[in-house]
Specification:
alpha+beta; Lipocalin; eleven-stranded antiparallel β-sheet; 2 helices; globular
Length: about 180
């Protein structure tokens, strides 16, 4: 029990120290917080998986759900696309001291994808990651056409460290009413 209280105290100090101190760029952080607030909630999502030529290879329906862990700083989420057996856990958060917004996701394969971008941006990228075929892959996620009850997202990938990008999917998020 003592260890649990120590852990809770340490977590409280970490959250409080992250919220204390001056923000390096309050305008950028305001945009990141707005992005978290806009993402919070339950979404119906249509995902178009694209072929290399850009045409739609498959369309699937799914859901994303995002709830607060720490108000205006950390969202936990879950995505599910039953048609293809896909389910992922997501953590979406602001790194205030570095003026970054980051999202991590892990699916049934156990691979943890880390996507990072400037706090004032709608785009996040992964580091170069070894792929099964021996190449490396880097992914870029961009959110756009944002309204209170709708936004779109595209995932692009690169096998040359980000010099050239190929769109892998397009997602349309519609807030559940």
């Amino acid at each position: 029990m003592k260890a649990l209280f120590s852990l809770l105290a340490a977590m409280t100090l970490m959250v409080n120290s992250a919220q204390a101190g001056p923000a390096p760029n309050s305008g950028a952080l305001d945009k990141a917080v707005r992005q978290l607030r806009e993402t919070h909630g339950k979404w119906n999502v249509t995902t178009e998986f694209l072929k290399l030529d850009g045409s739609i290879g498959m369309t699937a329906q799914g859901t994303y759900v995002f709830d607060w862990v720490v108000q205006d700083r950390v969202l936990r989420g879950e995505s599910a696309i039953p048609e293809i057996g896909s389910k992922s856990g997501i953590l979406f958060y602001v790194i205030e001291g570095k003026a970054l917004i980051e999202m991590v996701a892990v699916g049934k394969d156990g691979h943890l994808w880390v996507m990072t971008g400037p706090a004032d941006s709608e785009t996040r990228t992964t580091p170069d990651t070894p792929a099964e075929d021996g190449k490396t892959v880097k992914m870029r996620f961009t959110r756009y056409n944002v309204t209170p009850n709708h936004f779109e997202s595209k995932m692009e990938f690169s096998h040359d460290g980000g010099l050239n990008w190929i769109q892998g999917n397009h997602q349309i998020f519609v807030r559940q009413q």
